[in-house]
Design goal:
The chain has about 170 residues and is α/β, with parallel strands linked by helices. The chain contains 5 helices and 5 strands; from the N terminus they run βββαβαβααα. Strands 3-2-1-4-5 form a 5-stranded mixed beta sheet. Helix 2 links the parallel strand 4 and strand 5. The longest helix has 29 residues.
Length: about 170
Amino acid sequence: MRILGIDPGSRTTGYGLIEQQGNRLLHLDNGAIITRNGSPLADRLLLIYTQLEELIQKFQPDAVAVEQVFMAKNAASALKLGHARGVALLAGVRAGLPVAEYTALQVKSAVVGYGQAAKSQVQHMTRTLLCLPEIAQEDAADALAVAICHAHSHKLTNQILRQSQLRGGRG
């Protein structure tokens, strides 16, 4: 299963692509979509959307996982961040892909084992889990962590469904 993880932001949107092969997680690509600070919000959102579309076309993921917004410095920042999240969700849905959302707590728990982990710990663990030669940029590492979280969550969900089916749907 190929997963595109997205850490949305109106200034910087991180992305990370991984492939799950059995119990192995393989790194495919990561980076950040950086918009011009002085550009109108609509132009920045269009850039994020078109770049995500290009990534989806290039890598053909099977699923998209997006980090949920849980806090912002102020209401205006929260709204802009929400717009960027909406664009990320839209890119996945428009491509016909299943889209999952995870809180920062879920992502950190899945990757580091501790929901209050520092960003540096997330960066270090993504490097370790994906055997990267160096630590990824912060937004890209967060996006890779979202993809890893989905890989672990999807696998667990499938196991629960299989167990339920074996018990005849009770469970």
